[in-house]
Known about the structure:
- By secondary structure, the protein is an alpha/beta fold.
- The protein has a single domain (4-227), classed as TPP-binding domain (Rossmann fold, 3-Layer(aba) Sandwich).
- It has helices at residues 12-15, 34-37, 40-45, 47-63, 68-75, 92-96, 154-161, 214-227; strands spanning 4-9, 28-29, 32-33, 81-86, 101-103, 106-113, 120-122, 140-144, 166-170, 191-195, 208-210.
- The strands form three sheets. A six-stranded parallel beta sheet has the order 5-4-1-9-10-11, with helices on both faces. A three-stranded antiparallel beta sheet has the order 7-6-8, with helices on one face.
- Strand 6 (106-113) and strand 7 (120-122) form a beta hairpin.
- Helix 5 packs parallel to helix 8.
- It is globular and about 55 Å long.
- It starts with a strand and ends with a helix.
- Residues 10-12, 15-16, 21-24, 87, 105, 171-173, 175-176, 195-198, 213-214 line the site of adenosine-5-diphosphoribose.
Amino acid sequence: xxxxxxVLTGAGISAESGLKTFRDSDGLWEGYDVYEVATPExxxxxxxxxxxxxxMRRKAVLEAQPNAAHYALAKLESKFxxxxxxxxxxxxxxxxxxxxxxxxxxxxxxxxxxKDPSLTYDIEGWELKMGEQCxxxxxxxxxxxxxxxxxxxxxxxxxxxxxxxxxxxxxTSLNVYPAAGLxxxxxxxxRKIVVDPQASSLSVRDMRIISEKAGVAVPAIxxxxxxx
Length: 228
Ligand code: APR
């Protein structure tokens, strides 16, 4: 039976594709205060601003390309069962060829009903406009989990982590719960590796620490796993 590699990724894996991380920019996200654009209250207060913010981010995602780290993880599937659990709302893992990707915080290329979050739709192009409605007649919003909202995929993600033989943690500050708690579901005897230029400041135990950028370190680890 193939070994199961579980990879938990965060914004850092897409940094070298040109998509900015949140906490590397002083708590501002592309110049916006996150609570002004990524909370249910922000949506109530100023839906136009929220749409505009996500439209800009969606445009950036569509223009970005996967980098060497995304491609290397897709290559791992030649020898292992691989599940990617990502906090990212970009679709760069899928575009690099990974076949099992769980998006904990949603995906920006989809919209969802503001009445029933289970109703989701693909967005054509980069723009979601005010006035665009779901089949129930309510405004469509970005299919992303905002601060203060439940994370519906967390239980499935925890179950996946509990079956890991090898666990890779790439490019996440582990600041945001419940995602940050997923590492605690990984079995004690799994091999665990963390890749992050700031890895030494992360609160992780029993992990091999690689304090390098994902675009360099992830292909090297993948090569090591494929040839061992
Ligand atoms: N390679 C690997 N890691 C990198 C790189 C790189 N080239 N560049 C930066 N990093 C690391 C940073 O050192 C940091 O630890 O990526 C991490 C990014 O952390 P955050 O910006 O906090 O991103 P993330 O952990 O994904 O945030 C979690 O918070 O912003 C919300 O909902 C959003 O999903 C997101 C969640």
